[in-house]
Every structure is written in C-alpha cells, then in structure tokens.
C-alpha cells in the first residue's frame, strides 16, 4: 500500500510539474507585451515624435552632503543633456525638477521666526558648488571660479520655495516644508507633488477652458493625450543616474500605453559588511526577482528611488484619491506611511495598469552602512507587505 501511495504521489507531482510548465509556457507565448527579444530590440532608443513632459520629483529629509551632491549632479547632467529650448518640434521631452524637503526649518533663539536648518543650508551650498562645476566644465582644469546661480526665494504657506536656474535654462524648484505648517514624511510629500503637478499645473488650463464651454470630443481627446504623455520620475534624495537610464524608462512607457510605471535596476553603493550583504541581497531579491516578475506577469513594487510613472495612471480612479487617505487605524500607519511605494503600485495594479522593469536603466543609491540604519530600513520595507 505504501508503494502504491508513493507511486501515486510521484505521478501526481510529475503531472503537476508538467502542467505548470505547460501553462507557464503558454502564458509567456501569448503575452501581448514582448518579453523575450534580442538585446538590441529591448535596450535601444525608439523614435519619439511627440514632445513629452517629465517632472523629476525628489524627496529629501536629512541626507548627508555627499548624498545630496549625487542627485544634484545627476539633475545638472540632465540639464546639459536636454537644454531648455522654445522649439518643441526638435526635442523629444521637456523636464522640470521639484525637490520636496521635509522638516527643513528650525527655531533660532537669536531671531524671530523659523529658519532653514543645517541640512537645507547644505543643499543651497551644493547648488552653488555644482553650478560652478558645470559652468566652468570647458575651462582650464585648475581654473576655479565662484559662480552664483540665478535664484528666487518665495515664502509659501507650507514654508518656503527656492527656484534655481541651471546653466542650460532648466529650473529646479525646492519646496522647503515646515512640519509645523504641513504634514511631513515621504508619502505626504508625494501627495503634495501629485496634486500640485497633475491636479493644478496640468489640469488648470483645461478646467478654465471647460468653464468657458469647451467639452467636445476633440477637447477630451486633447486632455487624455497630455495625461498620456506626462510622466513623473520619482527619486530619492541620494539617487545617482545618467540621462540614458531615464531615456530607457521613457521609451518603455511610450512604447506600451498600458504600462503605468517602470523602474530601473538599483545598485547599492557604500562600504562595509552591511553593504556587502545588501549587494548580494539586491542581486537576488531585486534584480532576479523583478526580472522574473516582469517576464512572468507584472512587477509588484516599483521602488521610489528611481521609477517613472504615467500621469494618466496616477490620475485614474481611486489611485491619487486613495493614496492621499489619512491614516486612521494602526494598520493604516503600516500600510500607508511605511510602505508608500508598494501601496501606490498596488493601487495601479488594481486599476489594470502594468508595472514593468528595465534592467538596462541603472541607478545608484547609498546603502545603510551600519546595523541601526539597516534595521530601520528593513522594518519600513517589511511591514507594508503584511496587510496586502
């Protein structure tokens, strides 16, 4: 009897394995989105015949000087790659940069009111340093000049705003948030730029025309087209990337209209045993796992340090509105505030949008180098998966 049971168990396991292999093969064979192609077809530029709008949105808190230097150099590098021009016919995309700086103010005993803290002042200093580097980049190697970028400082209800004009005409807007005036933490910074860029900058002009009586098919098609061709690049305060990596993500969203978000391959940087462990872990749980998710079905979580989102997907029903929900229960604090990347991607997937992965779009981020930082990071990353 035991032999018959063993034979039946082995036969059932073999049949189940064969059926699983067959179903997986059929699933991959009939996918609408091409997965298995030649390298030159997957990772080469496509021609873009329409001018796209890309908003670079970075969130900062208390990053170190070197970490903030990485992302500012990356943004200035993109400014050199895509100078601002009035002729939209000869450019494939335009971009604006918005940095949302949490908890940027502190009390000053010697004066009235609140002033920028040391981290925010470091960012202002970095602008001057990087601006000088990119302004004198073609001069003699040891010819160092002090260059002050054009800046506008504006007082706002949430704190303050600094506008910096880069050497090639593009603008960086830094939103310094005062936690005594507005909600802080990363998710609320993301909600802030979603409603500001998509709800106000993108839709205000159409709402004004709608109030004047425009509401025909051509008007609605124009709105949908701009939503389809507007992207948001989510960045962390220490992300280092090249313009070519951004172009690959843009090509992915442009090529497949059903893709709501695409992420690149993240490389942890740093030194020490904790970083060594994370490099191995990223190779397994990020590069390998996301590749498997991309090929078999759909990526479940697009990391907020380097991901491109389509405006139309973010503005879909129950995405931005649900994402801006205030935490009212204990489980909400875990699901909403400690895992905002996975939460946002879950909302996109529930609306039928695809999330994909491009292994050729490389970006670099600083990894925690001691146990306390690593533990706090993994505590944030691990908890949000439980209520899902």
Could you describe the 3D structure shown?
It is found in: Cell membrane. The chain crosses the membrane at residues 7-30. This protein has 388 residues and is of the alpha/beta class. The protein has one domain: Alpha-Beta Complex (Spore Coat Polysaccharide Biosynthesis Protein SpsA, Chain A). Helices cover 46% and strands 21% of the residues. It has helices at residues 2-29, 39-42, 65-81, 118-135, 186-202, 204-211, 217-228, 243-255, 273-296, 311-314, 320-323, 330-337, 340-350, 371-382, and strands at 52-60, 93-101, 105-107, 114-116, 150-156, 159-165, 171-177, 230-236, 240-241, 259-269, 306-310, 354-366. Strands 5-6-7-2-1-8-11-10-12-9 form a ten-stranded mixed beta sheet, sandwiched between helices. The chain has a two-stranded antiparallel sheet with strand order 3-4. The radius of gyration is 23 Å and the shape is globular. The chain starts with a helix and ends in a 6-residue tail after the last helix. The model has no long low-confidence stretch (mean pLDDT 85).
Question: What's this, in brief?
Answer:
The chain is of the alpha/beta class. It has helices at residues 2-29, 39-42, 65-81, 118-135, 186-202, 204-211, 217-228, 243-255, 273-296, 311-314, 320-323, 330-337, 340-350, 371-382, and strands spanning 52-60, 93-101, 105-107, 114-116, 150-156, 159-165, 171-177, 230-236, 240-241, 259-269, 306-310, 354-366. It catalyses: [(1->4)-N-acetyl-beta-D-glucosaminyl](n) + UDP-N-acetyl-alpha-D-glucosamine = [(1->4)-N-acetyl-beta-D-glucosaminyl](n+1) + UDP + H(+).
